[in-house]
């Protein structure tokens, strides 16, 4: 088995790991049932996938010295209550379903997602005894994966459309920053990573399989040790001419006098007789 074959196997194994990891990606936001199923709202929910399987809680004291604990989950059972996206617990009292994730709305802005849980338990006296509703405003904050849950207010003074309002900061809803790497930088990084993988894989193969020692552990050592001479030979072949050189052709001088006559003979007719 050559070092090239080992490198190919390493690359294939790495790709399989990526595929397996991608196949195990969670899809817990599908537990949420949208009141109106639209691609835009479903995409807004998908942004909240990193926040699933986590319980966020906040304690709030009222003016009547009552203490309430609110528990919230993204498309999960908060407080162990089936379908309870947001649950209210009073000290010494029963748990109250504020919002049900089987009745969800999701509104996506530039750097925020508004999650609305409806179909909670009915009010006893307020808001025309309508069902409770929870609004969770999740805003972008790149410094934290998921900040603490904050209780903003409980609006129950209206005749209808009352709600509980909460805030949560998270980097999950932040817009993707454009890459600052050029194409050349990306190609350079790929080349460096590929060469590093080749060196490490080849070294392990030569040491563990072949049993090489010293500099012989370097993959394709014979080739790399001759790379300087090979480069010089290539440069010599391209840049220098080979074979016998021809002398430049120079024209021969042409005689201005006719051949076969001597100068004296040509001047004889000029003498007086």
Provide a short characterization of the protein structure.
29% of the residues lie in helices and 22% in strands. It has 273 residues and is an alpha+beta fold.
Fold and architecture overview:
With 273 residues, this protein is of the alpha+beta class. Among the domains are: 25-173, Cation-dependent Mannose-6-phosphate Receptor, Chain A; 183-220. Helix content is 29%, strand content 22%. The chain contains 6 helices and 8 strands, in the order ααββββββββαααα. It has helices at 3-23, 39-46, 183-210, 221-225, 227-239, 263-266, and strands at 56-61, 67-72, 84-90, 95-108, 112-118, 134-140, 150-155, 163-170. Strand 3 and strand 4 (95-108) form a beta hairpin. Helix 1 (3-23) crosses helix 3 (183-210). The relative contact order is 0.10.
């Amino acid at each position: 088995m050559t070092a090239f074959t080992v490198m190919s196997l390493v690359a294939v194994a790495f790709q399989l790991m990526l595929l397996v990891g991608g196949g195990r990606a969670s899809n817990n936001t599908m537990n949420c049932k949208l009141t109106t199923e639209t691609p835009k709202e479903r995409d807004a929910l998908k942004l909240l996938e990193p926040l699933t399987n986590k319980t966020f809680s906040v304690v709030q004291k009222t003016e009547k010295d009552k203490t309430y604990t609110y528990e919230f989950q993204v498309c999960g059972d908060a407080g162990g209550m089936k379908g309870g996206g947001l649950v209210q617990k009073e000290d010494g009292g029963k748990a109250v379903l504020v919002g049900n994730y089987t009745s969800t709305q999701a509104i996506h802005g530039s750097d925020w997602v508004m999650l609305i849980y409806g179909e909670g338990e009915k009010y006893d006296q307020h808001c025309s005894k309508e069902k409770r509703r929870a609004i969770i405003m999740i805003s972008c904050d790149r410094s934290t994966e998921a900040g603490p849950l904050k209780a903003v207010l409980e609006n129950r003074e209206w005749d209808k459309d009352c709600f509980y309002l909460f805030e949560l900061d998270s980097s999950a809803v932040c817009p993707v920053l454009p890459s600052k790497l050029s194409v050349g930088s990306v190609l350079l990084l790929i080349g460096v990573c590929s060469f590093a993988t080749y060196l490490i894989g080849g070294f392990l193969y030569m040491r563990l399989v072949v049993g090489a020692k010293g500099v012989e552990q370097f993959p394709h050592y014979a080739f790399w040790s001759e790379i300087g001479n090979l480069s010089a030979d290539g440069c010599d072949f391209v840049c220098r001419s080979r074979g016998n050189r021809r002398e430049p052709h120079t024209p021969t001088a042409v005689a201005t006098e006719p051949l076969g006559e001597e100068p004296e003979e040509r001047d004889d007719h000029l003498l007086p007789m």
